Amino acid sequence: MKLKFGALVLMAALTAAGSVRAEDPATIRLGAAVSLSGKYSTNGVFTRNGYDLAVARINERGGVKVGDKTYKLEIVYYDDESTPARGAQLAERLIQQDGVKYLLGPYSSGLVEAMAPVTEKYGVPMVEANGAAISLFRKGYKYLFAVLSTTDQYLKGAVDLAGSRSADPSKLRIAMAFENDPFSQDVREGVTEDAKRFGMKIVVDDKLPPDLNDMSATLTKVKLLKPDILIVSGHEKGAETAVRQIADQRVNVPMLAMTHCDSAQIAEKHGKIAEYTLCAAQWAPSLSYSDELFGKASEYAALYEKTYKEPAPYQAAESSAAVQVFADAFARAGSLDPKAVRDALSQTNMKTFYGPIRFDETGKNVDKPTILYQVQDGKYVVVYPEKWAEAKLRTPTPSWDKR
């Protein structure tokens, strides 16, 4: 399949002259500011790919029927440069200058946090797929909806796996290093709560440096204190730094769990040193989810790989699901009035190739769990939850002199 991009891609600077053409009456335009440059660019591209794949698929199937009229979808894009202030400016531009009435979210909780007050101010619905921070859903927003599981769930599985395999979980000790952004700090909150549930002791609780290039200070503590679990969250750059420096410094830890290590391609880029790493994820092609648009999760993954010549990351899958949610809401609302669409979004209850999607009163998806991959023999295989496990967990991680 050669993807026909219905999206209108605008990489213009905020100060660029001119405006987007008048809206085609047979087209619904969605706006999106995503990270195509800066530290989140890898996942920003995955986000855009997921959006575009869903738009192309929906349009190929005839579009979206709203009342007695059928519409095609297209997306107006800008590059937010991985900067929250820029994201807020672009949300304002999309709404005020480009006349967009519906927004797809950016990549990262920090960018969603910056844009949500803007969409709320103008009563513009935003369906986002890559901002999982639980704090986003404690602010009373009425126009924000998220298809993904929230941060407090991300590394719950790692704590559960360690605790369930220990004769006395209260004797286990945890080291943590997190980026100082809303997503990672909320992941930290979830891990802390789970650790308390088991009575585990947190012996290292560090913030990663802003550039995410060096975590040697944390690793020095880990070598000294010898914790049972090391948990890291710093998006894909933090994951790659962690894998590389843990190997370089020969840091031995029985269990290593991280976020974003599949999108950082640690297995592909780092080979054997990535083995045994546990990776929190929102979705996997092996899951038994399906829908009419994409078919099975595995079929979506095959379509993505055929289109983009690389494996489907969960960031792309959840982004495609966000477009599906908007399409479903347009059809059920029977109207393109933003308030009517917002009300339809609040009643969403659908099954997708990405998983079940149902929003609570805060706008978060309360029906879909997270999973854990483990890197085994160079592949990412699901090991948690057990009902979807493709393989048994390999634990503990051998020391470097035995690997």
Summarize the structure in words.
It is a single chain. With 403 residues, the chain is α/β, with parallel strands linked by helices. It folds into two domains: 8-149 and 286-358, Rossmann fold (3-Layer(aba) Sandwich); 153-281 and 371-402, Response regulator (Rossmann fold). It has eleven helices and 18 strands. The chain is globular and about 65 Å long. Mean pLDDT is 92; it is low at 1-24.
Topology record:
Layout: E1 8-9, E2 27-34, H1 41-60, E3 64-66, E4 69-79, H2 84-96, E5 103-104, H3 109-122, E6 126-128, E7 144-146, H4 156-164, E8 173-178, H5 182-198, E9 201-207, H6 216-225, E10 229-233, H7 235-248, E11 255-259, H8 266-270, E12 278-281, E13 290-291, E14 295-296, H9 297-308, H10 314-333, H11 338-346, E15 349-352, E16 355-358, E17 371-376, E18 379-384
Parallel strand pairs: 1-4, 2-4, 2-5, 5-6, 6-7, 8-9, 8-10, 10-11, 11-12
Antiparallel strand pairs: 3-4, 12-17, 13-14, 15-16, 17-18
Helix pairs in contact: 1-10, 2-3, 4-5, 10-11
